[in-house]
Amino acid sequence: DLTSKIKTIFLSLLVAMILVVAVFPLVLQYSTLTIIIMILFGITWMPLEALLDSWLLSTDDLPHSEYGKIRSGGSLGFAMVTLIFGSLIVRFGFQVSILAFALSGVLLFLTALTTRTHATKVPTPMGLVQIRLLLTNPSYIGILLFSILIFINHMGVNNFYIYIVQAVGGDEKLIGMAASVAAFTEIVGFIIGGKIQKRIKPLTIMLIVAIGYFFRIYLLAESGSFIGVLFTAALQGLFFSLFLGTFKLYINDITSIDVIATAQTIAASTYFGIASIIANIVGGILIDDFGMVYFYRFLTIMSGVAMVYILILWLMDKRPNKKSSTYSLEGINPK
After folding, report:
1. Residue 59 φ/ψ, nearest 5 degrees
2. What is the pTM of this model?
């Protein structure tokens, strides 16, 4: 944000990530080095999505309604990877995924390098002041807390999917199938999301998402067949895309263009980082020590808390005779 060189920083981190992935096979036999490489991978990979979104959302003459359609390309790529490379991994082993990851990273670098856009974002000496304003923006902090609650559910299922599938008699191939189903419904969600966002306010969409996530984890806990797992995977893709598209645009609308990259990367580190850590630690302990029943109870409780929390924000936004809207897009856009 201080330099406005989003593309340059994106390409630099991408190159670093490719190098980290290329080294990964050489250190697998050493546990300490493997942990270090995984940390480096997280440092280089995690900011890429947020930077790409910042690059996209700061581009001139790009209607926000087009964001979902463009973002659906990522879901299509994910679906193709889970279908194709999932089978290749089962057949040829883990090493093939590392090679594919590095090659796709090179292709992404060349594509990004040759992409030309014009952005309104310019360097500003007020960047640090704007960042402080961002971190004291009640709308921004409020929606970040919701993202943590909803992603504890999301990451809990994703990170322990192998146990969920095994509980219904599935294997690695069926995990890839479920991931593909989720990815394809994400495409649908991103495409229709733009039309929904034009007609429904962000907090109302988030309330729908919270209800959908609660319903999805309840069905997953009650399902005893892989068909049920596939159905809940479809729900996951749909509600995840609806959440992410609305969340990204909401952050963009309540944030100054001067700190858009900071706002998006802090948000990504919050829902992918903090939520994932909580889901991993608590979920792992519950599965190992108490079983899947308590794991599902934990996710159901967190989904319920997320639903109640966003309902409170929604009701606060609906209060009559309020001077300004604290949690909607009215009166808080500092652009």
Report:
1. -80, 135
2. 0.76
How big is the CA angle at 263 (ends 261 and 264), to the nearest 5 degrees?
65
In this structure, what token pair is assigned to residue 73?
Answer: 């390309």
Using CA atoms in the order 312, 316, 319, 322, what is the torsion angle rounded to 10 degrees?
170
pLDDT tens-place string over residues 23-60: 888 887 888 888 898 889 888 888 888 788 777 777 76
Coil, helix or strand at residue 99: helix
According to DSSP, residue 326 is labeled S
The token pair that represents 273 in the structure block = 């980082």
Residue 203 tokens, joined: 């907090």
181-238 pLDDT, tens per residue?
888 888 888 888 878 888 888 999 999 999 999 999 988 888 777 888 889 889 988 9
In the structure encoding, which two tokens stand for residue 47, read together? 């900011």
What's the half-sphere exposure (Cβ side, CA atoms, 13 Å) at 204?
8
* 59: β partners: 119
Helices (H), 200-257: 202-222, 226-253
CA distances from 137 to 141, 177, 297 (A): 6, 41, 33
CA dist., res. 139 & res. 21, Å (int): 37
Q: How far apart are the first and last CA of the chain?
A: 15
